[in-house]
Amino acid sequence: MRKKILIVEDEAIIAEDMRTLLEGEGYEVVGICSTVEEAIGLAHRKRPDLAIVDIVLKNGDGVKLAEEIIKEMEIPVIFVTAHSDRATLERVLKVQPYSYILKPFEARQLLGIVKIALDRAEAERRLRSLTRLLEFLNLARETIIRAGDSREISLKLCREIAPMFSPRCALLLFEDGEVSHWELNLGPLEEKFLRALKNGDLPACLKESQEEAVYLEDKREECKDCPLKELCGKGGMVLMRFVSKGVFYGALYLSPPMDFRKEDLHYIKGFSRDLALAFEARMAESEAVQTLTHLQTSLSFLQAILSSMREMVFAFDREGRFTFVHAPAEEALLVKKEEIIDRRPEDILPEDVVEKFWEAFEENRKGRVVNYEYSIEIKGERRWYSVSQSPLLMGGEFSGAVAIVREITERKNLELKLQERERLYRGLFENVPVGLYRSTPSGELLEANPAFLKILGFQSLEEIRKIGAASLFAEPGERERWRKKLEKEGVLDAEYRLRRKDGKLVWVRDLARVMERDGRRIYEGAIQDITKAKENELKLEKYVSELKRLFDETVEALGAMVEMRDPYTAGHQARVTELAVAIAQEMGLEQDKVDLVRVAALLHDIGKLGIPAEILVKPGKLLPQEMELVKLHPTISYQILSKIDFPWPVPEVVYQHHERLDGSGYPRGLKGDGIFPEAKILAVADVVEAMSSHRPYRPAYGIGKALDEINRGRGKLYDSEVVEATLAVFKKGFRFRKSFFAPGRPSRKI
Ligand SMILES: [Fe+2]
Ligand SMILES: [Fe+2]
């Protein structure tokens, strides 16, 4: 490219000579001016590489003009003048012209000065350009070193440093291949570029270039649709790529100044590498900080977990030495916590525990987790611990073990107690002579002890299971009846018959209950073989019934003996008995007392056996001495009956049957409470029966009169309650049985 020269000379001949000379040497003379204003205007328009200025112009000062174009436009100036006085020279030197030539001068002299000045100007421009670039790179490096993080680097670089070197720039930061941050200084391109970035549409140069730095011009096909096309088209763009060890950290686009030369990319490449390394270092540092933070968090978390753990935690190295201890209760360690590190289990623990530890440790070496329990004595108390011992792997290699130890003394003691209880229960279950069983409502026999099997003659539970519990019952449907009753009452005490394996029936007493076990309804019970007792009971019942029948027959026979001697009162004792029993029952007496009344009534006149028969059968009124003899019959009754061992006081009741409440009775004249209640009943029944019956010496008075008589005597002669009951009995329809009545036969009331 030809160098452009401006000539400011008001002597036209000289000016033209210079033009001819310079153009002849290959320079382009952009104009010849004779005034300052004209020269400034042309300099602005043409931007010459050099101005040759005459110091003294007819209408201006060449020095002032030079001062302006040197300062404002950095255009080097060569002065030409005919004046060489000291004052002029001093003024000229102040504006630092590139050279100074006195008129008249030779052509060679001018050309030599012009060439030197142009070379020097070029060298100076180059120097300024490189200085700017280097200043920019230095500041950028400083920023990288001092900035806190990648974001701060990008902010400073793009907003403060880059504009010193480049009017426009764009910085993109990447993370994991995606744009994570950008700073733009692109003017009107910015919006378009941002939109493209958001669409993931990166410039082709950025994707394709492998260089640390390239100079881009809009010449490629791929650049047609590039959002940076306009930018690169205006004098090109410098693209820096920050890549280190294959990781792409970001890119910086810069529009370089006019004097930027492609060979300066050499410096920029070095800077790109430095910046990539800085990003890498920052990333590594950030990762290290993150790792450290993560480790600290993990450590705090671990400490928090440990402090909340009631378990002890031990770590061992590959030789089995303690490397870590967490023990909330230090006493379980047997030594002080700080003394345990670096020691081996055999230095501290009892031999049996050490043995278990090493067995587990050997398994740990094979990568297995081992659980075991041990116990030690602490302050005279046996304490139990459970251990889960796991291999400790570092980088996949066995590097020791971790043991988590939990105290289980309470659980263990409970377990031992339960075992003991279970053992006792099992012993009882197996050996108790009572048959124990558990069954389901549907009849499945769950459990049965040996005694149960023995009672029913089976060898095993399986045998019964095969036939079902229901078939053990003597009758079909009996188990279902038993089940319903058990369900209704919850607890059942029953006696029934079961069928043995050999078909024989056995009587059992079964104490059963319904219960829930593990959410399941079951029947649990105990059976006892009561076959013998039952047979004895049945025999006894039969025997007692036999005895009773014998007794009753004997009593009746005795009663009959009296009536054989006194046929006129035949049936008297039987009828008295009938009424007396009815009165006793009406009064609510217990069965035992009713039986006493019955037997006493049947025999109450047995003493008549001791009265001479002629008195008993004598018709008409008895003489007083005969009457006295008759009154002896209760005493004789007593004497006879006293010889018999009754289960009741029959003789005494009979003895009192003619006594009256007011003491007017005989033979002893007893009163009120001195008379047995049963005797009071017997007395009333005796009177009512005698009065209502026919006698040889009088007709029957009838029931009405008899009842009137006892009603009149109530409370005085007869017990009120007894009278009341007697009236009630008749009111309810009591009548003497006719068969006992024998009218017309001679009899006497006694
Ligand atoms: Fe009597
Ligand atoms: Fe009597």
What are its keywords?
750 residues, alpha+beta, Rossmann fold, Beta-Lactamase, 5 domains, five-stranded parallel sheet, 26 helices, 22 strands, disordered C terminus, binds fe (ii) ion
Largest sheet, described in full? 5 strands, parallel
Mean pLDDT, to the nearest integer, reads 85
Shape: rod-shaped
DSSP helix fraction? 40-55%
Report on this structure.
There is one protein chain. This protein is α+β, with helices and mostly antiparallel strands and 750 residues long. It folds into 5 domains: 4-105, Rossmann fold, CATH 3.40.50.2300; 138-284, 2-Layer Sandwich (Beta-Lactamase); 308-413, Beta-Lactamase; 432-529, Beta-Lactamase; 548-740, Hypothetical protein af1432, CATH 1.10.3210.10. It is built from 26 helices and 22 strands. The protein has a 5-stranded parallel sheet, sandwiched between helices. A hairpin with a 5-residue loop joins strand 18 (435-439) and strand 19. Helix 18 packs antiparallel against helix 19 (591-603). The longest helix has 44 residues, at 265-308. It starts with a strand and ends in a 19-residue tail after the last helix.
Question: What's a quick, concise take on this entry?
Answer:
The protein has 750 residues and is α+β, with helices and mostly antiparallel strands.
Please describe the topology of this protein.
Layout: E1 4-8, H1 12-24, E2 28-33, H2 36-46, E3 50-54, E4 56-57, E5 60-61, H3 62-73, E6 77-81, H4 86-94, E7 99-102, H5 107-146, H6 150-165, E8 169-175, E9 178-185, H7 189-198, H8 204-208, E10 213-216, H9 229-233, E11 237-244, E12 247-254, H10 265-308, E13 312-316, E14 322-326, H11 345-348, H12 351-365, E15 370-378, E16 381-394, E17 397-407, H13 409-431, E18 435-439, E19 445-448, H14 450-456, H15 461-467, H16 478-489, E20 491-499, E21 505-517, E22 520-529, H17 531-565, H18 572-586, H19 591-603, H20 613-616, H21 624-630, H22 633-642, H23 650-655, H24 677-692, H25 703-712, H26 720-731
Helix pairs in contact: 2-3, 5-6, 5-10, 18-19, 18-24, 18-26, 19-24, 24-25
This protein binds fe (ii) ion (FE2) (2 copies).
